Queue: 4 jobs
Job 1
Amino acid sequence: MILYVLIGVLVLAVAGCASVVWAARGGPRWVRAVATATLLGGEIVRSGQRRSGNRGGGGEDGGADGSD
């Protein structure tokens, strides 16, 4: 069952990337809408990763391992 979910997510990701490329070449309105949704979804994921990365405190310059 989990395999089908992962395949579905993969298909959606590939279709989203294809719509971004098609929209960049001047595709129809619905393709531009899907491309916009794909890009917004990517921004949301990236902002979530930045926020969760700041809470950890163990980033490149925030680590306290004493290896100065």
Job 2
Amino acid sequence: MAGAGGQDNTRHIPVLLDEVIAALKPGPGQLIIDGTFGAGGYTTRILETGASVTAIDRDPSAIEAGRALEKAHAGRLTLVQGTFSTLDQVALLGAPDGIVLDIGVSSMQIDEAERGFSFQKDGPLDMRMSSSGPSAADVVNRLKTGDLARIFNFLGEERHAGRIARMIEKRRATEPFHRTRDLANAIEALVGRNPKIPIHPATRVFQALRIFVNDELGELVRALHAAERALKPGGRLVVVTFHSLEDRIVKRFFNDRAGSSGGSRHLPQAHVRLASFALIGKGVVAPGDAETESNPRARSAKLRAAIRTENPPLAEDHSIYGLPNLPHFHETARS
């Protein structure tokens, strides 16, 4: 993610902005839901097209920072603090013509040391987007070793997951982890640093903790199904991801919803699932060289989009996403 080093030149640059607008096609009289308001980059451009926007963010500081924009577009912008998995409840005010989701942590959050998303600047081991619930420190200091290893392995794809979890268990018995640099330094001391590998050895663990603390993959799955319920026929869903785990979920959702997976020419009596979405374009859209050079955060970005059909929402089948049964904090935290 860009912004990990606190560089201001990437703080307010929305990724794949032109491509998002092209896929979303907002215009006068339309209602668009921006499920990840952030710094308001997508929302601002959408408002410029004449459309109205309901913008959601789980971060109260993002909502507060957006009040001036809301006031400037009185009547056409409504800010809502909450999770985007509940966007269909927000949409009860009217079925939206489009929904855009920018998945992951914002560079603004990474830049703020006190939020604890990054070890580039020392801060409390927090990582909560909504500033409520269990923090990363709670997870590190209280979850069982095996659960920590599973989190680091799946959500961070960390090959030293077991070793790191055992180190944490041993260290926290006498000195719990409370600061980002403390945890990062402990991981580096254990694993070592390969000069041929540019990323810090704690990067994948921090990614895994952030995703787990905020239930990012679960939120994404729930948001996709909420969008399916909320959109009007012909409405557009545009999703930008930054990680392979996220992109795989979005790809599987769209492919499942756009296919007719129940029918067969050999079994004409079989029930045919009517597609709830039609894919836009050939699949994934990636940023060009010029954007990745000017905005490093865009390097791993992928855009996928689809149009809602007139068919009813399909039954939810979360097994298609291949997500493991990760621990629930309150059920597995040690006393």
Job 3
Amino acid sequence: MIELRPFNGLGGDNHGWLDAKHHFSFANYHDASRMGWGALRVWNDDAIQPNTGFPPHPHRNMEIVTFVRKGAITHEDNLGNRGRTEAGDVQVMSAGHGIVHSEYNLEDKVTEIFQIWILPTRTGEVPSWGSRPFPKGDRAGSFVTLASGVAGDDALPIRADARVAAATLKAGQSAEYALGKDRSAYLVPATGAVEINGLRVGTRDGAAIRDLETIRVTALEDSEIVLVDAA
């Protein structure tokens, strides 16, 4: 089962400094049929203007993964963490029993991110933050795990029964992802367009996937793909 969620049909708001699109119910956008997909709760597609951003605000008991598509995002929190995550790289925040953080685009150009929230399997723990570079060359032609709660994965750790993976494909290339039984996946091309089981998924469209043991993705044009695999 694959359900296409076209980018032009997503909810969202343009606040001037922030142009936000929501794949699932978030903030002022509410759709009872789009409250999440497995443990995946939020997938926001944000464009943040230069020298603006999200001032300090709290989170708790949520795994928050930020994939930077263009520009860079600078994180700072009340634990003393501070870091700048550039395009193609990933940051992860485990909110645990509570954290206050800010995220700003301190660059001279628009920053574009996917921000992904996943429900944790463990709550009330000590919060944490981390980031890691993931060069596009390392994920050329196949899926690479960026963040994971699965033991043994070489990725940024999250406290969830989930993986966040990405692949970079040239036009005509295919890649497979072993989803397995009783799992849910949500896939978005950050750039380009792909085909899954005959269904075309364009740039920033969402594909909600269930009941597929293996996901085979074929690039219709040069594409960068982000996928969440969640229980």
Job 4
Amino acid sequence: MKKELRIRNDFFDQDCINWILSQPNGSLYILLYLHLCCLSLHDNEAAIPYNVQWIQAHTPVSIDDNVIDSGIQLLIKAGLLEVNDASLVLPSSNSVVVRRAI
């Protein structure tokens, strides 16, 4: 089954996105977030291992470990990611992106 990720047309108008973009490395954090959203499509439960090295190995852009770690913390603080056991999960209540089967 194919899955798709839809980004709302007002993605960059969301308060949480603008807040992240205003932070140092904000654009890298948004790129990381979008890539994590895409990675979540590969798993039926949309969970991603909370492992900086694993994320770095599966991210096509070279992002420093510290940037990934601080980005994840910021995305959690913004409510775009949640930690569940040893995994990162995109909240189902997240209205910024929508994952669905096609």
